Amino acid sequence: MESSRSRKRARQDWDGAGAPPPTERAVVARGAASPPWRDDDRDGHYVFELGENLNRRYKILSKMGEGTFGRVLECWDRETREYVAIKVVRSIRKYRDAAMIEIDVLKRLAENERYRSLCVQIQGWFDYRNHICIVFEKLGPSLYDFLKRNRYQPFPVELVREFGRQLLESVAYMHELRLIHTDLKPENILLVSSEYIKVPGSKKNSQDETHFKCLPKSSAIKLIDFGSTAFDKQEHSSIVSTRHYRAPEIILGLGWSFPCDIWSVGCILVELCSTHENLEHLAMMERVLGSIPENMIRKASSSAQKYFRRGARLNWPEGAISRESIRAVKKLDRLKDLVARNADHSRAALADLLYGLLKFEPSERLTAQEALDHPFFRNTT
Fold first, then answer.
1. Sign of the dihedral through C-alpha 166, 168, 171, 177
2. Which of 39, 97, 183, 208 is catalytic?
3. Does residue 183 have an active-site annotation?
């Protein structure tokens, strides 16, 4: 990690880097006055108005998104005359610390040219009114945005193949650098372009009214959000990942490493090609993949033992928190059946790949590089 002194120096270098010559400086500054001072909101988010400035260089055009870390703003860069996305982190110590980790990770990723096509590119960072602001290239919507817009209809298998290949290439690159992303999910996978086409979707009713769904014109994607990324050698927190993409070894308190990213990739691919609290999540795993291995249950942490009864049986449905939770699990089919309904001619290869990614035992899962060599990615007919 960098010292606070080197970070300060880096910030000073960035703030001054690429400054326009004196004859242009007045043009940049014109209309670029700082906004009035405002207190942050009660959650530590930066309070802003559209059209005002985020320091003298960037004009705020829109809010692109919001998360636990802060907000992402679309801005106009007066110096480069380009649109950028700026992650404005909440003015709370743990989120500021996570932002500095993300900057360190992005710098490490950027040391190799492969990074440019796999992960979002950082253009710089600065500290503004106690908010770490990270400047990124502006990308398109997330895969989650597309799923939601299409009412969670599955993507065509050809797109799933392209998304899966690029995602695994990104993960393989990170793992080569001994980095574990820990928060892979459709929200953190962005399309490079916002352009899309409309195609006929499912029939809505007996009058044959057809839904249309949107598909991206380009399948190019990039991985984002490295604030939770862990170095292989560092001490790992007990809980990582968003619940629906969380590997069983994390839930059971068995420790985790690179294979937890692989499990998340498998969950993402299932979500892309098919249409809750921890106990429900474990019940979903068993419904789709079969019983959790007894040796994993026996080694589970004391806090995870509450999910089981009589030693090796999941406390389900007895332990369910609601009837809706039980119904949600009952709706699930076996993995091969989930895929078979949606993947057509590629279903056998895709199902085999998913079984390799979603092994309960972390040591038995495919590595990212092994997954890239799977026949599913060679089967393009």
1. negative
2. 183
3. yes
